[in-house]
Amino acid sequence: MSDETTRMVPRLIPPVVVWLVTTALLVAAPSLDSADAEIGGSPALGSAGWWVALVVLTAQAVVLLERRSRPLAVLLVVAAASVVLAVSGAGDTTSLASAAVLVAVWSAVTSVSLPRRVRALAGALTGAGLLVALGTCLSQTSIGLPVGTAVLAGLVQGAGVIAAPALLAATVRARRDARSARTDLADAVDREQSAQIAAAIAEERTAMARELHDIAAHHLTGIAVMTGAVERQIDTDPAGAKESLRQVRTQSTAMLRELRGLVTLLRNPGQAEEASGHERLSELASLVDDARRAGLEVSFSTLGAGSVAGSVGPLAQLSAYRTVQECLANAARHAPGARCEVVLDARDPAEVVVTVGNGPPPITPAGTPRRRGLGLVGMQERADLTDSTLEAGPTAEGGWQTRLRIPATATAELAG
Q1: Rounded to the nearest 5 degrees, what angle is found at the Cα of 70, between the Cα atoms of 68 and 72?
Q2: Is CATH 2.40.50.100 the right assignment for the domain spanning 278-361+371-416?
Q3: Which of 98, 131, 352, 381 is at a distance of 20 to 30 A from 25, taking alpha carbons?
Q4: Does residue 207 contact residue 374 with C-beta atoms inside 8 Å?
Q5: Residue range 238-261: mean pLDDT, rounded
Q6: Domain limits of the chain?
Q7: Residue 107, exposed/middle/buried by CB under 10 A (0-12, 13-18, 19+)?
Q8: Cis omega (within 30 of 0) on the bond before 43?
Q9: Residue 408 is inside which H or E element, if any?
Q10: How far apart are alpha carbons 406 and 169 in whole angstroms?
Q11: Euclidean distance between CA atoms 120 and 128, whole angstroms
């Protein structure tokens, strides 16, 4: 069975069933009249009125084929069949036309778009009810019923044929719309979750890129400085060249170790605190020593007694460590030969301040632009993550200073 045939079957079943039922009743009506003289009113089998009724009922069934594409027009047309039967001499056959009206009402209520066409639907239902009532009233008066009785019968017939299927269809539609709304809500939740997952993935990628930049920039800058020294020392100072090569190896090993730690952290985010154990404020002195061995003229000082390990959480300490690491790498890259200073100020119990400054390079090429790259963006992102304040910019002497203020509120950023 083709797809087109599969789609046609549901469309054909109601009109065919209506036509078969009404035709069967039309054929049986004369026999019922002869069996009970009080019924009467049905056209004789094969008479002109009988054929008129058959044609009208058949036309109703054909019109029902368009009930989905033009539901309101179909409803009015099939309801008008009652009036046609009443005025065409088909006897008391208007009740047979009500079967098609039931189907048309159902289709109209379940398929018309709401609330945009609710007024049109209400008007069509009212008009169809009046047409059925008029047809019934004319039919009843034609067979001798009093006008009052005929009008009452018409109103009851019109209201019943329209109201009953309309209420049932409205109930079914309400349940269908509620089910559709739940499905739409579930889809919206799925889309929101997908968007959140995508945002989380993008954030993780940014974090990974920032970590890779910090690690590689720091160590590769040191390696570049030391290999430049090797090139100058290899002929005049072989011992110094060997020492520089040992430092290159030390920097390379440290970079590999930190990259492995980053991969471990990405594989298991739960190990964040453990993985960053060597990247704390207490290790700043070692970081400065590494930079000094790499050829950078840098000093380190601490203001305030005691350790800051208990006052600043692991994430904030990692942020501060990476900030100092990035600043030293930038100083070696952009201000080679300039003196640097790292100060850890823990005198204020409300905050810890880390300051990294460097003087101007001995020689600054004309037109050299101020640095503003990914490193500074990464430092700002880290500061925002721990509610810290980052201040970075040139000094009056032509150097550069970066200051990170870590508030006491950053002590619990990994506690929950």
Answers
A1: 105
A2: no
A3: 131
A4: no
A5: 73
A6: 3-190, 278-361+371-416
A7: buried
A8: no
A9: none
A10: 66
A11: 12
